[in-house]
Predict the 3D structure of the following.
Amino acid sequence: MTKFIVILLGLGVLANSAIAMGEKAIEVDANGDGLMTVDEVQAVYPDITAEVFAEVDTNNDGALDDAEMIMGQEKGLIPTPSDG
Ligand SMILES: [Ca+2]
Ligand SMILES: [Ca+2]
């Protein structure tokens, strides 16, 4: 029974962090189309240059999807919410 509760708590932590990432993506994605253009990114992170944006935009379609955004944050190219 205790083990079952621990598993439930673990799932809860995972779900919360996933929701937190989703909220951040929505915040940057001003028009809600699921992609973050350079204008949308710079509105939230004015320090992101076109060069940095292009580096994060690994498939070169001119916009960042959630996977590219998370990868950019993991590389330290895009500030994460915890950076303040
Ligand atoms: Ca958008
Ligand atoms: Ca892209």
The longest strand covers residues 36-37. The pocket of calcium ion (ligand 2) is lined by residues 57, 59, 61, 63-65, 68 (CB under 6 Å).
